[in-house]
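$ run holo --ligand "S-adenosylmethionine" --emit tokens
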Amino acid sequence: MSNMHVNYELIKKYDKPGPRYTSYPPATFFNNGFTSNDFRQHVIASNSQHPRNLSFYFHVPFCPQLCHFCGCNTDVMKGKSFIARYVEAMKNEFETVTQFIDKDRPVTQIHWGGGTPNSISMDFVAEIMALITSKFSLAPSCEIAMECNPAYLTYSQIDKLAELGFNRLSLGIQDFNPEVLNLVNRKPSQLPVADVVNYLRTKNIGVNLDFIYGLPAQTPESFDSTIRQAAQISPDRIVTFSYAHVPWVKSAQKVLEQYEIPGPEAKLAMFEKSYNILVDNGYEAIGLDHFAKPSDSMTVALKNRTLQRNFMGYCTAENTGQVYAFGSTGISQLWDAYSQNVKNTEAYVEAALKDGFAIEKGYRLSARDLVCRAVIQDIMCNGYVNLENVANNFALPENEIVEMLNFNPQSLQPLVDDGLIIFDGRELTVLPEGRMFMRNVAMLFDPLFTGKETMYSKTV
Ligand SMILES: C[S@@+](CC[C@H](N)C(=O)[O-])C[C@H]1O[C@@H](n2cnc3c(N)ncnc32)[C@H](O)[C@@H]1O
Ligand code: SF4
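-- output --
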């Protein structure tokens, strides 16, 4: 794969606010008109919809210490009795929701996210895993994953997770430089990261390491050294997130403004350097911020243009199911509906224990949304879309698809002229130089996006 050269002129031209497209339509369209009744009906309907596979997501919104940069849905650590009640609430929610799910549907993905799921007792995790297997069969290829903060990860925890069938852990490293971690109120890994990765390998557990660039005290040189260290450790996957500074949503991030936060140019230099280091070390770039070994299932799916994405990240067609989420803020992603749980953990526990549902908002996808989602997902995951294939998949004429997308082929011309994409009227391919502008391409197939929205982060 060729090296990446950041073109500052093109960045100036295309860098404007736009959705990140982790879902379509974006979560900003979720509304309070969606109730637990609606969710129940959509869960029943989901049994005969696509995909048949089941993905279960469990959200653990607790962290022993809050990092100042954090953009996740989390809360301070609670006492053991509250956590026990929270786990009971998730179990009750699971029992209630899964009454409506056909038991012959295979589970292909179980994901524990947070917050810090490895900050609660593994006995709680075991209780929920036992509840799942008492009701459903796991597919042999089922991916069972947990997001872990290495500051609290121990070998005995890993042993327990292996025993429970976990086969993928994401470790939030963020940076190897202790000065950076100190400024953002984060503890370093308790164990040497290289030893943890080697130990996970002996247990056949795949490993992702997460990093963030754009934090105080980071420079292109210091981040270069962190990423070189990561490449040397050689995990299956590496993710380099661009720090999203949104103090108007996450007020805790304001603390970081007392330090110098790297500006756009320094961030782009970090992006470019880390990209090239990882590619030079044999990793394949997936989207903008994911890197995986050539033999990894994610890389293979990208090559076959079958890579998909849900709120938990990229996934292969084999592992992707409709997502049923449990816990506060959890987002379920069914064929034609999204549903999100309440954020406040106390309110979640009360509702989930009482009603088995704790829905705050959601969205019903229209026939048009389904088509747009398919096209935007293809562009964002695979950098490729073929309108004839989309028309065939939806059993609709191609001109009707173009109309539904409100798509004007002329709008692609500047991207073609700048050498970012190829388009022959039917088949669109994003070129390596266009990778950074994938969101700009997707926006041209999004009839809900007017260009006047101000709540989104910039596209590059
Ligand atoms: C939900 S966190 C879970 C991992 C675990 N709590 C930890 O911190 O190790 C998932 C990842 O999101 C990333 N992240 C969190 N806040 C971010 C922000 N403001 N901008 C970009 N990435 C962020 C971090 O890399 C983190 O590892
Ligand atoms: S980054 Fe992870 S550990 Fe830090 S506050 Fe966010 S969820 Fe918690």
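-- notes --
The radius of gyration is 22 Å.
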